[in-house]
Amino acid sequence: MIQQMLINFEDQLEKNSESFSDPSLRYLFLLNNSYFVREEFLEPSNYVYILPSGTTLKFMQYQEKYMLASWEPVLYCLQDKMPLWFPKHSSQLSRFKSEFQKTCTPHQKLWKVPNPRLRQKLREAIIDKVITGYKRYLEDHPELEKCSSDLQDMEDMVNVLFEG
């Protein structure tokens, strides 16, 4: 009976998430709620065995979909395939920085992730994917002027996300 209740709850969450037109916010909504249920009701008790199969998998899928919807467009700016002779690096960097700012500042900075552990997990995932991708890009293009404050500024911006 509890398992069926959880399945119904998950289904209702997914239906409610459709009211968000922004896919990033939709997956953040699903992440917040599924994490809350998992942390508050299931993990403290010894009823983990009643979890519907795939619940943890769904949570991981929500996180992956959130990362794809929010941060993949930022990284795409660096992965743009152009001919080698085309002077593209500076425009790629400026597009990347602009997209990063746009995603962080007015957009997700105001979104709320109430659980501190989930908030930290998301920040770490963003840093691991986006900041590390940016570092790799700079390493692959040593001819570009590097500014270490950029990396720290970007990390600082990520570390204030989801405070609401």
TrEMBL record:
Keywords: Exocytosis, Protein transport, Transport. One of its GO terms (biological process) is protein transport. Residues 4-146 form the Exocyst complex subunit Exo70 C-terminal domain. The lineage of its organism: Eukaryota, Viridiplantae, Streptophyta, Embryophyta, Tracheophyta. GO terms for cellular component: exocyst. It comes from Oryza glumipatula. This is Exocyst subunit Exo70 family protein. GO terms for molecular function: phosphatidylinositol-4,5-bisphosphate binding. InterPro entries: Cullin_repeat-like_dom_sf, Exo70, Exo70_C. Component of the exocyst complex. It comes from the Eukaryota. SUPFAM superfamilies: Cullin repeat-like. Belongs to the EXO70 family.
